[in-house]
Amino acid sequence: MARIIGILSGKGGVGKTTTVANLGTALASQYKKNVIIVDCNITTSHLSLYLGMYYSPVTLNQVLNGKAKIQEAIYDYHVPGLRVIPASLSLKDLRGVDVSRLTRVITKLSDEADIVLLDGAPGMGREAMSTMRASDEVLFISTPFVPSTMDIIKCHQVALEMGTKPLGILLNMVGKERYELTLEEVEQLSELSVITTVPMDKNVLRSLALKTPVVSFDPNSPASKAFLELAGKLIGEKYVPDSFMKRFMRLLGLARKK
Ligand SMILES: Nc1ncnc2c1ncn2[C@@H]1O[C@H](COP(=O)(O)OP(=O)(O)O)[C@@H](O)[C@H]1O
Ligand SMILES: [Mg+2]
Q1: Is the CB of 173 under 6 A from ligand 1?
Q2: How confident is the model at residue 245 (pLDDT cuts 50, 70, 90)?
Q3: What class, spelled out in words, does domain 3-251 have in CATH?
């Protein structure tokens, strides 16, 4: 039975898609899990763009408008163990999409993977709520600022009403500036625990330009370490970074790629 984890936030642009791409890659490459990541942000789909997948003949859109089976929309990514269900990048493919089918469709992935990560839409509209409903557990993404933290409060309440288990908050883009909320302030405001902090890291933006998750692009960057540690925490395993020698060998192309 796959664990189905929704990645959600009240506010947009806080790092949901970045988290899905990196957690998925980390769980598959570092911890050898069988993972499917799904773009449930149908109206503004980005996940495939983050992975350099520009053309997918069948997407979640066709599944949600009844024209295809979910299994037909699953694509292998070049990281062994990681597969992707993209949403369409085309406006015309929004026609006939019924997001209320999402739970039924996602349930069909139960026997296909160890972990399914759902990349949600921001806010509390139908798209985001369908993702919440389709999830067994939910990881909230926030930044260390009042608006994104306040929005999590409402999302948390809805999760509890729906019976979706909140895993806590991933506090992203942390710069440790004086004007940012502290971790304790975020926890007090949201009544949730911050299970990890991911620093503001230019390598995330560099990796985006190369359409590669940062954990593959630069596994030793500060953001990568946070994602790799979080992936371990989610499955109860400890992250053991590669030794200097192994990193050096990999640099020379003498060690096996993960
Ligand atoms: N830790 C980080 N450091 C720097 N930039 C980040 C970080 N996390 C995300 N970003 C950037 O912020 C932008 C929004 O992230 P994204 O994952 O698309 O947010 P969402 O899916 O919540 O809308 C992207 O350009 C992404 O590369
Ligand atoms: Mg997104």
Answers
A1: yes
A2: confident
A3: alpha beta
pTM beyond 0.70, yes or no = yes
Task: List pLDDT tens digits, range 146-194.
Answer: 999 999 999 999 999 999 999 999 999 999 899 999 999 999 999 999 9
Which atom belonging to ligand 1 lies closest to the Cα atom of 205?
Answer: 27
Name the CA dihedral angle for 22, 27, 28, 29, rounded to a multiple of 10 degrees: 80
Quote the ligand 1 centre to 249 CA distance (angstroms): 31
Map out the domains of the chain as residue ranges: 3-251
Asked if residue 46 has its Cβ within 6 Å of ligand 1, the reply is yes
Residue minimizing CA distance to atom 15 of ligand 1: 15
